[in-house]
Design goal:
- There is one protein chain.
- The chain is globular and about 40 Å long.
- The protein starts with a strand and ends with a strand.
- It is built from two helices and eight strands.
- It has an eight-stranded antiparallel sheet, with no helix packed on it.
Length: 154
C-alpha cells in the first residue's frame, strides 16, 4: 500500500498464501492468491475514484477489518446477503467531515459480482451504493450504514 507519482494517487496490493491445509509446504496444493489490487485517485476528500479488485462497499462487516468487529465471526446474515468479499470493479466514494466531528462517507460502485480474480462472462453487473454516518466522529467508530445492492443479468 502506498502512493505513486502524486500523494493523491494511491494503490494497494495484498496477497494471500496458503498450503491447502497441508503441513508439507512444498505440496502441489500451495497457493498464492491476489486479494486486493486497486488504484485510487483523490480529487478531494469528498470525491475519489477507485478501480481494480477490492472489497465492494456493502455492509459494515464486509468492509471492516476482522479485529475491528465486536464479535469473533462475521454474522451468518451478513455472509448470506453480502456479495463475494472482493470483486473486480470500480467506484466513486468520498468523505465529509473531520475525524473528531461527525463524518459521512458515501460510495457508489459497479462490480462484476463474481468474486476474487473471476471474470464475468455473462452480461450484467452488480451495483452497490452505501452511505455511512459516524455521528460521534471517526475516532469513536459508531456507524449507521444503510446499503443497497442490485445484480443484473442473473
Amino acid at each position: 500500500q502506498g502512493h505513486a507519482v502524486d500523494p493523491k494517487f494511491t494503490y494497494k496490493l495484498q496477497f494471500e498464501a496458503s498450503n491447502g491445509g497441508q503441513i508439507d509446504q512444498t505440496a502441489p496444493d500451495n497457493n498464492v492468491g491476489l486479494l486486493d489490487a486497486w488504484v485510487n485517485y483523490e480529487f478531494d476528500p469528498a470525491l475519489n475514484i477507485a478501480a481494480g479488485q477490492m472489497k465492494s462497499p456493502f455492509g459494515l462487516q464486509q468492509t471492516h477489518l476482522s479485529w475491528r468487529l465486536q464479535t469473533v465471526e462475521r454474522s451468518q446474515a451478513s455472509n448470506f446477503f453480502a456479495p463475494p468479499p472482493r470483486e473486480i470493479g470500480g467506484m466513486i466514494w468520498g468523505l465529509f467531515g473531520e475525524p473528531d466531528a461527525p463524518v459521512i462517507e458515501y460510495s457508489v460502485g459497479a462490480f462484476n459480482g463474481e468474486g476474487v480474480g473471476a471474470t464475468n462472462d455473462e452480461p450484467g453487473q452488480q451495483f452497490v451504493a452505501a452511505i455511512r454516518v459516524e455521528p460521534f466522529g471517526e475516532e469513536d467508530r459508531k456507524k449507521l450504514a444503510p446499503t443497497w445492492m442490485q445484480s443484473e443479468g442473473d
